[in-house]
Structures are given as C-alpha cells and as structure tokens.
Amino acid sequence: MKIYSCETHINHALDVLVAQEETFPIMEKVDEVNKLSTKCEYCDTPATYIVANR
Fold it and tell me: What is the residue extent of each domain of the chain?
C-alpha cells in the first residue's frame, strides 16, 4: 500500500496506513522529479511524502 500525501494530510495518511495494514509505516519524501506530477490523495496539492508499508 502507498499513500501520497501533502504536509497537511500526513498525519491522516499515517493513521490510515496503520489502521488498514496494522504495520509500522515507512515515510519518504517525494523526489523533485515526481513532485509536480504527483498529487496528494486527500486534496489537490502536490504530494510531499509517500507513506508505505514496504
């Protein structure tokens, strides 16, 4: 599971991943190349983080 999130929604993304996957989340910054084309899953701003379980 991967969730793309902006700074505003990062706590929600972490909560959702932990609730659904029941595992420790891994949080990484979106690289500059993909930053403009990748949107937050909760709003329309560019994603800053990728929250994943692997």
Answer: 2-52
